[in-house]
Write a structure and sequence with these properties.
Helix 7 crosses helix 10 and helix 8 crosses helix 9. By secondary structure, the chain is α/β, with parallel strands linked by helices. The protein is 27% helix and 32% strand. The two termini are 28 Å apart.
Length: 323
């Protein structure tokens, strides 16, 4: 990621954010203001006021969240798993420092306790201060926020969980999170902490026609090596400049969402305390159908993601956690 000044079509000099998607591909977003730039012990963090996307949060040079469309990502991450579970009461969030994942979980009337563990207190504090849409979630009495390694806290947690959500930074080389995409983590930490009917869902990186084999397909295959059934799904997110992938793994192979849009709409109405902006029954059905190219890539993938044999999306981070 870098900033540069270039003339716009009106001849005025403008500040642009350049994000490198791959070695031979960049895209630019106009920067109205740089609101914050700094680094924590684990990652660099920046908040900019952009032209098309409003406030944009970047971690380790990657767009993490944008004000204009973050609701698409967070509804996609949270609600399919929460709706697929018959009565989700106890939820564990790995990461999620922005606060939006907790916000979406807390829409569900059945929820009694949410434990959110993010290693980076600086990012959590910064998001609490600057991202107004999530302030209510940070202050919610059902939310317990812990600043620590999510893996260690999940292992040590009392009891079991109905839904575990991994809202982690992308697996970049040297970043703090790649070990939480591995077979060992899924098999030895996540699965033992789920209730017998529990569900695990993770963000899984780019899932476009040209990008799905970076990490999305390998995460799916890795989860399939541990869980009896895994549902991959994806949706284009404008600020990510790509389709974005998610994988939902279930303890019971029979777990599934209702089949018809009307049934899904009824479930959303009954289970949530407020309306969703993006997802409804028809949309849920649509995002669960991968295109032909990505579907074939998922079926053909054989790579199992391990600490010794990981995959990374393009970019690099600041620090690697010890195992």
């Amino acid at each position: 990621m870098s900033y540069c000044e270039k003339k716009g079509s009106d001849g005025r000099k403008r500040l642009w954010l350049e994000e490198e998607i791959q070695e031979d591909l960049k895209w630019c977003v106009e920067v109205k203001h740089i609101l914050h730039s700094g680094k924590s012990d684990f990652q660099t963090m920046e908040l900019i006021q952009s032209g098309p996307f409003g406030k944009v949060l970047l971690l380790d040079g990657k767009v993490q969240s944008a004000e204009a469309d973050e609701f698409v990502y967070h509804e996609m991450l949270v609600h399919p798993a929460m709706l697929a579970h018959s009565n989700p009461k106890r939820i564990f969030i790995c990461g999620g420092g922005e606060g939006a994942t907790a916000r979406e979980v807390l829409r569900h009337k059945s929820v009694e306790e949410v434990i959110m563990v993010d290693i980076d207190k600086d990012v959590c504090d910064f998001c609490h201060q600057h991202l107004e849409a999530n302030r209510e979630a940070f202050a919610h009495p059902k939310l317990k926020l812990v600043y620590d390694d999510a893996k260690a806290q999940l292992q040590q947690a009392d009891g079991h969980f109905d839904v575990i959500i991994a809202d982690l930074a992308d697996p970049v080389y040297g970043g703090p999170c790649y070990q939480l995409y591995t077979q060992d983590f899924y098999r030895d930490v996540v699965q033992p902490k789920l209730n017998p009917d529990g569900i695990f869902v993770t963000q899984s990186g780019p899932a476009g026609v040209l990008s799905s084999t970076e990490v999305f397909t390998a995460i799916h295959t890795t989860l399939r090596s541990v869980f009896p059934a895994v549902l991959p799904y994806a949706q284009h997110i404008p600020s990510y400049n790509d389709a974005w992938g998610f994988n939902m793994a279930v303890q019971q192979a029979s777990t599934q969402l209702p089949e018809t849009p009307a049934e899904l709409d009824g479930l959303i109405k009954d289970r949530l305390n407020s309306q969703l902006k993006f997802l409804d029954g028809l949309t849920l059905q649509a995002v669960m159908t991968l295109n032909k190219v990505v579907r074939a890539a998922v079926q053909q993938e054989e790579h199992i993601y391990t600490v010794d044999n990981p995959r990374f999306i393009h970019g690099s981070g600041m620090k690697t956690l010890s195992s």
